[in-house]
Amino acid sequence: MTKPKQPTALDLPMVDPLPEATQKYFDICQEKLGMVPNVLTAHAFDIDKLNTFTALYNDLMLADSGLSKLEREMIAVVVSSHNRCFYCLVAHGAAVRQLSDDPMLGEMLVMNYRVAELDARQRAMLDFAVKVTTASATVEEPDRQALRDVGFTDRDIWDIANVTAFFNMTNRVASALSMRPNEEYHAQFR
Q: How many CB atoms lie within 10 A of CB 123?
């Protein structure tokens, strides 16, 4: 595998050679996505950090949940929009386009989710994610009850809060380090 260009403003070289399990993971990414996401290569200077990041990401975004994969990606985009995270808007905007089969939805969520035709469940979920993003200390029981009122369980609310918090953290890291999305994301699923 050719080494990708540096995905951040920092000069932290990937471990060379990569451990066998990491190389296998990168090969799977290359096969399924046509690229190794720069967020992974950025973490590959420290395999323990990479493994921790990917374990949490995979659990929150891919494991069984009352939230669909699309809903989790929608949260990622709306949180990233509020945080103005270039990396996540591009990468997760592409995922929304893919999972929804609707390129306009991805663009609307990037710009202003309130202009999208969302059902009551999606709107409540994204309103909650924005409140957690902008003023988490003000979240109260009526905010959680509003989610229950549109069909979310307490477990779903846990997942919404955790996906939201994860992207608030990763947005800050990506912005602070000037992490750049892979160019391939820009043209995907349009």
A: 15
